[in-house]
Amino acid sequence: MSEIIPFPVPNKQQKSDLDALIDEALKAIPRQDREKLRFELIKTIDGYDAFFSEWSLSLPADSNETLRKQIYDIAHQEHDRKIQMLKDIMRLKIKVLVAEYQQRK
């Protein structure tokens, strides 16, 4: 038995540390160019698509509830790890985008 389990990221209204880091990296960039760099960051992240948001799990048909819970817990831990990887990629990518922008100017 195989099923895809989506792991939605809740929409948080408060700024995260990552948002603050991105804002700080972009604050010296003119407004119009800042939006272009944000768009480039979003394109990079969108390129990873379902890698960070979908899972395919195969559960034995005769598995008990305890085994299913253990597998689900492991999937959540792995999801948290992947989200941290995505945040790290975003931190590095915004630095690269700003550095490339500054080299062009």
Model description:
With 105 residues, this protein is mainly alpha-helical. It has one domain. The chain has three helices and two strands. It has helices spanning 17-26, 31-46, 65-104; strands spanning 2-6, 54-58. Strands 1-2 form a two-stranded antiparallel sheet. Helix 2 (31-46) runs antiparallel to helix 3. It is elongated. It starts with a strand and ends with a helix.
Give the strand line-up of the largest sheet: 1-2
How many distinct domains?
Answer: 1
Rg, Å, rounded: 18 Å
Give the number of helices. 3
Separation, N- and C-terminal Cα atoms: 55 Å
What share of residues are in beta strands? 5-15%
Question: Class by helix and strand content?
Answer: mainly alpha
Number of strands: 2
Percentage of residues in helical conformation:
55-70%
Biggest sheet details: 2 strands, antiparallel
Uncertain runs: none
Shape: elongated
Quote the average pLDDT. 83
Order of helices and strands: EHHEH
Q: What keyword list fits this structure?
A:
3 helices, 105 residues, 2 strands, two-stranded antiparallel ribbon, single chain, mainly alpha, 63% helix, 10% strand
Entry summary:
This protein is mainly alpha-helical and about 100 residues long. It has helices at about 15-25, 30-45, 65-105, and strands at about 1-5, 55-60. It has one domain.
